[in-house]
Design a protein that fits this description.
It is a single chain. By secondary structure, this protein is mainly alpha-helical. The protein has six helices and two strands, in the order H-H-H-H-E-E-H-H. It is globular.
C-alpha cells in the first residue's frame, strides 16, 4: 500500500527540518555549542540593534514564555545579551554578543553551503523555482469555509 501524498505544509516542514538538522549538526561538528532549533530560530530573527522578547515571540510563532526561555538559555551560553531599550526606559532589547555575532556569521556561511548542496541535488532550476515561489507575494492568509 502506498503512502498518501503529503500536502504542502507537510512538505515545507520537512524541507525546514532538512535545513535545521544539517545546520545544527554541522555547527556542533565544527565545535560550536549545541543549540536547539527553537534557539536557532530566535537567534536568526534578531535585528542588528536588538529586538524585544515580545517581538521575537511574534516572529518565531511561539509564546513569550517560550521565547523568554530560549533567549535566556542563549544569554547563559554567552551568545546573546539583554540591554536597556534606548527608546523606552522600561523595556529591554535582546542582541548578539561578539561571540554570538561570530557564531551567527558561521551559521550563515554554513547555510550558504547547504544551499549549494541543495542546488547540486535538485538542480539550479529547482532551487531558483523554489526561491521564487517562497518569495512571491502570497497575500494575507485566506479564511476558508469547507463544507
Amino acid at each position: 500500500m502506498s503512502e498518501p501524498a503529503r500536502n504542502l505544509p507537510q512538505l515545507l516542514a520537512q524541507a525546514r527540518r532538512w535545513f535545521e538538522d544539517a545546520l545544527l549538526t554541522s555547527m556542533q561538528a565544527a565545535g560550536e555549542q549545541p543549540v536547539t532549533a527553537a534557539q536557532a530560530g530566535v537567534f536568526a530573527t534578531l535585528d542588528d540593534g536588538g529586538t524585544s522578547i515580545a517581538e521575537l515571540a511574534r516572529r518565531t510563532g511561539v509564546t513569550r514564555q517560550t521565547a523568554h526561555q530560549a533567549v535566556h538559555s542563549l544569554i547563559g551560553m554567552g551568545l546573546l545579551e539583554q540591554v536597556p531599550d534606548p527608546a523606552s526606559g522600561r523595556s529591554t532589547l535582546i542582541r548578539t554578543t561578539a561571540e554570538g555575532t561570530r557564531v551567527h556569521r558561521r551559521a550563515l556561511a554554513t547555510i550558504a553551503v547547504l544551499e549549494t548542496v541543495l542546488t547540486e541535488r535538485i538542480g539550479a532550476a529547482g532551487t531558483t523555482a523554489l526561491r521564487a515561489a517562497l518569495t512571491a507575494p502570497w497575500g494575507e492568509p485566506p479564511l476558508v469555509d469547507v463544507h
